[in-house]
Please model this.
Amino acid sequence: MTLRLHNVTKKFGSFTAVDHLSLEIPEKQIFGFLGANGAGKTTTFRMILGLLDQTEGSISWNDGEIGYGQSHLIGYLPEERGLYPKLKVQDQLVYLAKLRGMPKSESIKELDYWLERFKVPDYKHKKVEELSKGNQQKIQFISAVLHKPKLLILDEPFSGLDPVNVEMLKEAVVDLKESGTSIVFSSHRMEHVEELCEHLCILHHGTPVVHGRLKEIKRSFGKKNVRVHAEFDTRFLESVSGVTKYKALSDGCELQIINEEVSQDIFQEISGKGFVRTFNLEEPTLNDIFIEKVGASYE
Model:
């Protein structure tokens, strides 16, 4: 069930939020969607869900239509979250699952599984407003997956969660992928995308500036990073030919270099200068690529 966007454009009056976006999101994988605020990520999700009509272009899923008619096959976790604060967790989630065609007995069984998994079984009969923000988010996540969707869209699923809960949700996302769910998620956190996604797209002003398989994106970027931990001043490495960025660390430096050959020149330069604790040649990070393509740090 591949999700395809072809030349999708969305205009609000004279403002173009998404501009001729063409993407193919492979099934049974986790696809990462990156971009600064206002890049067009949420607008794209809303068009996929049929909540907004695109101005131009087409969106298809499994070579057919996608929209309200497929809502029983789709799960959506919106960035702005939207549970009813006065309703109890079970009443709310059973109702939402029923809207997607799931019998009550089955939805309660599934709810019990997820509450247990997220270590909050005692929240079943509590009102949403009685829960902490992080636990409300767990409940919102459960509402998106309770009906066992084939396509799951997660808009900033990890925002506002502490590290323990982030890990819990990440494991759940990976398990859903392993069981055959196609997942698209946006995140502000590069390391989450790097860890979870095989394919990704970086949007900038509604246009994809990077799109493809993560490994190939890194390979085609060309530049590498070198990390040196040493017990002497490494500032002189900034002037080595082929070094494009120098960042001082408390016990050494991080360098960006144009290709791996330059790392050998750096190695020669530090030989005999004193004690070197570590010398690492590393792949570029997604953050490096984002900054180069979009021109601004993302954190």
Notes: The two ends are 33 Å apart (CA to CA). The chain is about 30% helix and 30% strand. Residues 3-216 form a domain with the Rossmann fold fold (CATH 3.40.50.300). The chain has two domains: 3-216, 223-283.
